């Protein structure tokens, strides 16, 4: 799957470029511009797909013609799996203009619906094929086939809903090609930087502490990233909105939205971190039947890695949304390269549990100040920064809930670890949000209004 992610570099940032440009054109109400963007993007992603197809077929024929290479890779199913992974990458590229149009015109719910259905149907198809003892290539290929069928349905729906975006016209538009490639290049540097930053901690631990220690990082990191992805998804939904607002020159709305997301994000990260630091160790012990006992210092490292990435995501999606991320893209690339160095030094000097310190240092030296500075420059007099008082209040809520959670876990553990985890989790959540309501009434009201809005109600 990591190989599939690397293949998507062939996208060259074109997917995000089309979303941003469509969102800005949509803000101006320029349908002809949106149609031109779709045509040009379809041409560019087709060329990218042909590049991926050529690489995959070349690698496949080399593997089949050189059994020595195949033996060195250590897996006889590699050729079939390679074809399936390549087909997945090609499909993702070809369908990207459809999902880009949905997202760019503020119909993220439709894109999310079809992508979610595709993943679900693909998973079911893979499981059914796997029960027949088929090879990995066929198992993964079943997933790709199911996603392909759902993607066709999404394409038909998109055409019926927005036929005006597919009107006839020239595919080769030199000016539009230059704009999309220039915008895509800025997104690509951010994409490469994110991949490097995300893989640097695991690479440092596996290379200098040993592969046996990788689960001590990968398992808790997967647990923490699962809920943090909700925050990232919410930021991704807002990204086209930022572009549309920038097209209407509504910088004040952008600043207020970012300020709200930062505030609610800190509330969310705070309760996650307090619960994670107390409950992750006993939970992983139960989950792995006592085989993996993650030390508290590693849990803290995981919080530093995941938390810093989540906060930077707010700025990253905002900058890409308003198409002001050229400098930020190089900063993200520098952050990725710095992470490789800083994480390696942290592991060598302090041990594998200090890998999070290296990741945090890399962020602070690069994107941690460059991204906010670029956002400040783009928004002018409208600034999205949080005030000091609520930040101190949230820190207080985090510390108190952490202490109470630890006390509850210690007292209830003799009656069973499962009950101790459940009871301590309840104590942490109750104490944290109780203090947030007491000390940060503004944030509490924003959370309440957001939840009621999602339920289709209005606050009374």
TrEMBL record:
Report the principal subcellular site.
Answer: membrane
Q: Where in the cell is it found?
A: Cell membrane
How this chain sits in the membrane, per its record, is: Multi-pass membrane protein
Q: What is this protein called?
A: O-antigen/teichoic acid export membrane protein
Q: Name one GO cellular component term.
A: plasma membrane
**Where are the membrane-spanning stretches?**
6-23, 43-63, 83-105, 117-134, 140-160, 261-285, 297-315, 327-347, 353-371, 392-413, 419-440
Keyword line: Cell membrane, Membrane, Transmembrane, Transmembrane helix
């Amino acid at each position: 799957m990591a190989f599939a992610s690397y293949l998507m570099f062939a996208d060259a940032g074109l997917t995000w470029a089309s979303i941003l440009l469509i969102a800005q054109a949509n803000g101006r109400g320029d349908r002809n511009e949106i149609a031109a963007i779709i045509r040009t993007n379809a041409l560019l992603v087709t060329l990218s797909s042909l590049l991926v197809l050529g690489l995959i077929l070349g690698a496949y024929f080399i593997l089949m013609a050189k059994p020595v290479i195949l033996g060195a890779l250590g897996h006889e199913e590699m050729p079939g799996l390679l074809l399936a992974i390549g087909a997945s990458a090609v499909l993702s590229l070809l369908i990207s203009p459809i999902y880009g149009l949905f997202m760019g015109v503020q119909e993220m719910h439709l894109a999310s619906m079809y992508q979610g259905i595709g993943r679900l149907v693909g998973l079911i198809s893979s499981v059914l094929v796997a029960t027949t003892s088929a090879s990995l290539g066929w198992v993964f290929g079943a997933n790709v086939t199911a996603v392909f069928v759902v993607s066709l349905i999404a394409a038909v729906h998109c055409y019926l809903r927005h036929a005006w975006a597919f009107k006839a016209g020239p595919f080769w538009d030199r000016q539009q090609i230059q704009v999309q490639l220039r915008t895509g290049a800025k997104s690509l540097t951010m994409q490469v930087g994110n991949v490097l930053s995300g893989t640097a901690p695991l690479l440092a631990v596996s290379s200098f502490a040993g592969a046996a220690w990788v689960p001590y990082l990968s398992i808790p990191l997967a647990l923490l990233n699962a809920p943090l992805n909700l925050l990232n998804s919410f930021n991704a939904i807002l990204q086209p909105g930022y572009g549309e607002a920038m097209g209407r020159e509504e910088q004040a709305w952008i600043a207020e939205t970012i300020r709200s997301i930062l505030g609610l994000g800190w509330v969310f990260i705070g309760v996650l971190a307090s619960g994670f630091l107390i409950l992750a160790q006993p939970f992983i012990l139960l989950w792995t039947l006592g085989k993996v006992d993650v030390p508290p210092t590693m849990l803290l490292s995981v919080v530093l890695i995941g938390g810093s990435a989540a906060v930077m995501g707010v700025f990253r999606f905002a900058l890409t949304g308003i198409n002001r991320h050229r400098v930020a893209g190089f900063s993200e690339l520098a952050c990725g390269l710095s992470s490789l160095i800083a994480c390696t030094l942290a592991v060598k000097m302090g041990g594998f549990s200090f890998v999070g310190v290296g990741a945090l240092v890399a962020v602070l030296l690069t994107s941690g100040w460059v991204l906010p500075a670029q956002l400040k420059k783009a928004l002018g007099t409208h600034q999205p920064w949080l005030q000091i008082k609520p930040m101190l209040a949230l820190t207080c809520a985090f510390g108190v809930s952490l202490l109470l959670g630890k006390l509850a876990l210690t007292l209830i553990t003799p009656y069973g670890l499962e009950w101790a985890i459940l009871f301590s989790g309840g104590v942490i959540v109750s104490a944290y949000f109780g203090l947030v309501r007491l000390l940060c009434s503004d944030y509490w009201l924003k959370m309440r209004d957001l939840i009621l809005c999602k339920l289709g109600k209005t606050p009374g």
